[in-house]
Sequence to fold (69 residues):
Amino acid sequence: MPRMVCIDCGAVEYEASSLHSMLVKMMPHYLDRHHDVISGEATEPRETWMDRFSLAYKAAEEQDIHFSR
Ligand SMILES: [Zn+2]
Fold:
């Protein structure tokens, strides 16, 4: 299963079989540590954050495929 660290601090790591469930698993951590991202108060637009998140998940997926071969 793809494993991914928090794209904003790298302090936690989760594994999830889809981008959506990765978002769901990360959410409590974001509420706790990166509340500005959730609330939209961060200087970075949420779309940009979502792009970074998607890219990080895709990279995790590719690594997962690579290592399970
Ligand atoms: Zn974090």
Remarks:
- The chain has one domain: 3-68.
- Residues 6, 8-9, 11, 29, 33-34 surround zinc ion (CB under 6 Å).
- Residues 3-68 form one domain.
- The mean pLDDT is 93.
